[in-house]
């Protein structure tokens, strides 16, 4: 069990390493193939009025003339020990973990990311609990009453839920519940949990529902399929033959086995969303990581884009690791392999 | 089926288990699947009934029907099941659930898929015990260890915490038996208990089941397509075909004087060590009937070599299960009893040279060709 965990952790670290190389190559390797020079890199960081000489000096200072591997090394080193950016007119210190420094905003990317994280975490945690509970509950009921009116209605609803994008449902919710009926907070509201938990939940309820609807629908379908599969297994027949109450047969024997694949997608979905729920955040004007990413892309702020990409990748890899470990806890057969 | 097998009509002397005209039908989009279509038999405690037939003949469905597993869902059950004076078909699902696992228990074919992969063997036995007995986990655990020891699992106090996948096939089946025995059931149904096991292990499991049956004095129904297993364990044999009983009698009668052409076919498709290996097995031609469109008349007639000798009745009239001989031997066949006995003695028995119930019994631990046979017909 311990070796299993250690092996998986090493695997996750390797995965992050690969992701960091790919990210770096996408932003610093590929443009070179397309004809970008150190000067054009430098130009991205400077104002449009900077002349060729200023660009050259800047590129020199930031090491854009170094070989690619050295640039990568400096970049990854900064993550662990921090670095100083000397851009000619001053020196900016970027403390570890340094995920780059935006010369547009004059902010270390890491500080921005940490600043945005609570919004995204709040959105993700609330929505994920909501969609997990409703999705699994609806899926189980649908499976147990296969072909019934409830099943058909729920699966039709689920199809609609999967099909409707959050910028549509979100805007509809905002229009009706916030602006017509004045029941919920208007768009763009966010209150820190630590400031006022009640207001925090009130401001997030619509984004939660919007985001949860999308996933709850998918989870209901997954759970239904998994339950139908499991309830046909031999061990369910055995459980019934033992004289167990049907409730125990369904929950302890059926649901436990059916939920294992759900854990996998749940972990990945949560990991993915922690890197930024772009559509929902944009719809509700929540200044989370997704919003930050879109903003950075629009501004062509490379350090920010790279930082948020690495951050998101980190969450996905860690979520994957947790899923693997949970799997070993849930399914004893995994531990041996 | 109108005929009632049990000769006892005196209600005070009702047999321990009695089925009367049990029917289990499943309505589907393609039509009604008549899995069990009028099954009648009785069984006393301490006795063993072997139910024999090809895949899809309704063996397993009838046993699950006795356990009341089809009480929910879309199955249509009719007829009567009497267990120790209690009628089960009309009883509430909750009543039957209370009996299930406690007074009647089941051993399944493939112990790997029949045990939950996520729970330890011990936990599954403890669960089976505690659902019917209000005892602490500790007491139940002790009971589980005792049971595992009783069914011959070495170091039961350690193995009780193992998962099913950590057991070998034979061990798993032993654990499955321990689970079934956890509440001292009076009726034990074993559905192909040895089919998924190595031949060497098969004999051990059969021995174990016989010992345990004597010890607990339970009624045992053993469902199999392996005549060797039947010969080894059964007092009575019931041959099923197309959801109906087509021959019923004591094991000696069935093996020594079988009268139904299907039973002859089953006997003929059994491999024998006391014959030259060049001798060919005699498989039954054709495939088992669809339970949605059961052949008209005698369900076996399309595969029967003797359907010409029934005077044209074979494909129009459903034959009754009629008494033949003396010891309660019943056969569902259009041919007159004398004709059947003649054919058996003159045409069939000589080709199964040396056939006799006892000789068959000796074969139980040997590899069975009925495996091969069922693959052919599947």
UniProtKB/TrEMBL annotation, chain A:
The chain crosses the membrane at residues 12-30, 119-144, 156-180, 200-222, 257-279, 305-330. One of its GO terms (molecular function) is dipeptide transmembrane transporter activity. It comes from Catellatospora coxensis. SUPFAM superfamilies: MetI-like (SSF161098). GO terms for cellular component: plasma membrane. Keywords: Cell membrane, Membrane, Transmembrane, Transmembrane helix, Transport. Residues 117-327 form the ABC transmembrane type-1 domain. Gene3D superfamilies: MetI-like. It is found in: Cell membrane. Belongs to the binding-protein-dependent transport system permease family. The keyword Ion transport does not apply. It is a multi-pass membrane protein. It holds the Pfam family BPD_transp_1. This is ABC transporter permease. InterPro entries: BPD_transp_1_N, MetI-like, MetI-like_sf. Its main location: membrane.
